């Protein structure tokens, strides 16, 4: 046995996974063949690592550019079907984002098959205020202008007919106070755009929709 095992005390004939399994490599083989596998598949492993890094970057928090955050929702038809048939898939959440480098932390929530008054007939959109890094030095309640914009993807920018809804309500309500939990209650529009209208023009294109949120940029000072 002492002559069989390697310098680390491991069996060279044992079947082991590739050292890049966390990156997505599915290969398994004998331990004494693993160096050869790594050498012959270096580019594949680099590509997998690159994709993994992109996934991790997309999970990080974003900062608005000039008060605008663009949310791309791919696989729209599949997500809509899930929203209509599965309770746990009813809500779709955007990545968290900040209104500025030291601004409010927000997140969009979309109900593709509607919620409340818009259930089954409209796309419902909401935004929630989340606990952020700079809440202690930001003004409260939240008073920023908020617009939801559904982008018309027509090739001719000049004829696009974006759908826009502006938040208008009492800013003294609990919805806009500094959150003392992970996030506040959501505020928004249960009837942002009807499902019939959404299927017209080029609001859905290549199974993708784009929703932009425009917020007055603000940084703590």
Word description of this protein:
With 221 residues, this protein is an alpha+beta fold. The protein contains 4 helices and 12 strands; from the N terminus they run E-E-H-H-E-E-H-E-E-E-E-E-E-E-H-E. Strand 6 (97-98) and strand 7 (105-111) form a beta hairpin. The radius of gyration is 24 Å and the shape is elongated. The protein starts with 14 loop residues before the first strand and ends in a 6-residue tail after the last strand.
Briefly, what is this?
It is built from 4 helices and 12 strands. By secondary structure, the chain is of the alpha+beta class.
Topology:
Elements: E1 15-17, E2 28-30, H1 34-40, H2 42-59, E3 62-63, E4 68-73, H3 76-85, E5 92-93, E6 97-98, E7 105-111, E8 122-130, E9 146-150, E10 163-166, E11 187-194, H4 195-198, E12 209-215
Parallel strand pairs: 3-6
Antiparallel strand pairs: 1-2, 4-12, 5-7, 6-7, 7-8, 8-11, 9-10, 9-12
